[in-house]
Every structure is written in structure tokens, then in C-alpha cells.
Amino acid sequence: MTVENNLNISLSKRLLIYIPTYNCARYIVSVLDEIPAEFWNLADILVVDNRSTDETVNNIQKARSEHRWPNPIHLIQPNKNIGYSGSQKLAYSIALNSGTTERVIMLHGDGQYPPELLSEYSPYIDSEYGLVYGYRDKSTYPRKEETPAGTYRIIKALSALESLVTGHSRKEWHTGFVMYSREFLQQLDLEELTDTYHIDGHIQFASGELGTNVKAIPIWKRYKDYEQLKGLNRLTYIFHVMRLMVQFRIKGMPKAKNISAPSTQQFSIIPIGSTED
Ligand SMILES: Nc1nc2c(ncn2[C@@H]2O[C@H](COP(=O)(O)OP(=O)(O)O)[C@@H](O)[C@H]2O)c(=O)[nH]1
Ligand SMILES: [Mg+2]
Question: For labelling, which of 1, 9, 25, 213 has a CA lying 20 to 30 Å from the CA of 128?
Fold first, then answer.
């Protein structure tokens, strides 16, 4: 494995599908299997594994060595776990550093956002939208949308509050299913974005401050097969978000001083065939 810090991964397509993983051994191979065929030609696929402690990397490596997928994927690992937020900052720096990437779609490696939803973005790949995001919607997807009722109400209430506090109306501030344009990402100081879980909300806030063209599309999220935040964790998350939305408003948005500076985060490129010790 080669340690890199010059962000030079040979991306060649205008679209990048970035897949953050952390202990997704049960899901990651089927997530890649479920990526609609057209996207294997349209997009580069970059898995950023955040130092999983389970079989996530071995499962990917096994599938790669069997040439399971139509095209090669890129697989990298930072040299330590850098959190959900750090994984995003690294991926967006790599995208901005590449000469080709025009748009980035984040697709969670745990499969909670079904990869078939990628097709919902097709109409917007050549659009003026700087940010397109999916909001969970039980009225559009009454059977498929699996967010437990309590969580659903909390997410909707928190989102209504965050729209109020920030002055930017969004159908959901907690979605992890998003597509960003290069033009939009370039205006952000990635390093200044929050290091917490609510980085998706911070980027939404930035898009509001920048007056970015934003599009919301109804989606569904899987929960049946997944752990969810409960009790104190859930309360901590709620208070975190409430504190952050006020901070966003007070501090204003993290503007890039110049074209977004490349991240200095070190990472390893995991070539096909190498397995974790
Ligand atoms: N929990 C966690 N997830 C991470 C991390 N790095 C990447 N991820 C991935 O980021 C995605 C979102 O995390 P998750 O906990 O499922 O958040 P949620 O579904 O948005 O509530 C998943 O695909 C995780 O595997 C990390 O350090 N911690
Ligand atoms: Mg998840």
C-alpha cells in the first residue's frame, strides 16, 4: 500500500460517486452491486474507508479480485479514522484536485440510501444546480420509506427549526444523499466546515449563504436492517444540531479564501489484490 498525500487519484470522469464506509462489511458489496448500470460508465467510484475494524476492506478486495463489477473502483483509507466529516473533506478535496470531476454524489456505504436512487439525480447532472439533495418523504414513498415515526417527526421538526434559525428554507437538513457541483464546492473552505456529524447541515447552510441553486428531491431511507441512534445519543445529537445551527448563523459561512486549499490529510491507496493484514 502506498501512502499518498498529493490527492492524485487518477479520476477520469465528470461525475464522481463518493462512498464513505466505516464498518459496513454487511452492506458494502451489495451497495456496489446495486449501483445502476449506466453509472458505471458515467462515473468514477471512490470508496473512502475510515479504517473499518470489520471485514469491510477484505470484502471489497475479494469482490475486486473476482472482477465483480463492470469497471474498477478506487479504494483509499486515511491513516487514521477521521470521522464522517473528515471523510467528506478528503473526498471533496480529491474531487476538486482532479482535472475532470464536475459533480460529486455522496452515497453512504451502509446502503441506507438505496443506490437505485442515483437515477433520481440523472436529470440534474447537466443542470445549473450547485446542490441537489434528497429528503425522506413518507407521502411519496409510503411503503419504502422506513424511518421510524418518532425519528421522522424529530428530523422534520429539527429541519423546520433550522430553516427558521438560519433563514434558509430546506425540506431536510440531515440528509446524507446529496450531489454537489465543483463550482459550489470550490467556494467553501472545507477545512473550516464543522468536524461534527452535522457537516451535511453546514454545507446546506453555506449553500443558503451563497445563494446557490438548490434542488430537493423526495427519497426514502432504509432502517429495518439498521441500528439507530437511541436515548442519550439521540438527545446529544439533537442538542448538538441546535447549538450548531445557532453557531452557523453567528459565524456565517466558511468562505474559501482562494480556490479550496487541498487537504493535507494523508491516505493510502489500496490497490486491487492487497488485503488487510
Ligand atoms: N459512524 C461513522 N460512520 C462513518 C464514519 N466514516 C464514514 N462513515 C460512513 O458514513 C455514513 C454515514 O454514517 P451513519 O452513521 O450511517 O449516519 P446516518 O445514516 O446519516 O445517520 C455511513 O456509510 C458510514 O459507514 C465514521 O467515522 N463513523
Ligand atoms: Mg447510515
Answer: 9
